[in-house]
Amino acid sequence: MLQGYAHSGNLEKMEKTYELVKNCVNDQKVQLIRTMICAYYKSSNTDRISKIEKLTTLIPEDDYRPWLNVLLIKTYVQENLLEGMEKSIRKAFEQKTIVMLVDVMRSIIRTYFRSNALDSLTNFVKEAENLGWRICRSLYHCKMVMHSSQNCLEEMENVLEEMEKCNLDPMKKTFLIMYKANSKWGRRSKLERLLGTMCKHGFEIPLDALSS
């Protein structure tokens, strides 16, 4: 019954049933604990984070499941909770879990961006690269935008070298980020060279460059 209520998303009956059998579940039925965590993940329960965290304490340390840890990362991302997300990411790193899902990577990036956590993002990218996680341009584009917002334009340009090491060629969006950054901070000479590079790669020139 507990499993059925969890799968159907009936949290009220799931919780009532759990209260009746939780001693047995906590001691012997770890798979049901995971099922309940999944039910909370899929729900819009306002207290789901605290309930999920309470349930995870019941899972033995040696009973690690990569898919469940990724689910926890996604849950913290949905709630925009950087600390919880990073805790689950560290757990994944420690267990050598490799994440290859683009949507998960992009959601992690968005959380770092919303928190303006450039240093944390930089550390994450480095570790993710080393462990073979799915690396996408969005990671580097986010770093470039964040460097630009702090007027760290040399650091922004260095990101291109990082992309090259991962065999990621710059695309139109890459150059537009650099163009907007240099335009914002008044680096005219850099803008002219950048426009030449964009032409060389066959990318359209921004309209505001033509009118200036």
Automatic annotation (TrEMBL):
Transmembrane segments: none annotated. It comes from the Eukaryota. InterPro entries: PPR5-like, TPR-like_helical_dom_sf. GO terms for molecular function: mRNA binding. Belongs to the PPR family. P subfamily. This is Pentatricopeptide repeat-containing protein. It comes from Stephania japonica. The lineage of its organism: Eukaryota, Viridiplantae, Streptophyta, Embryophyta, Tracheophyta.
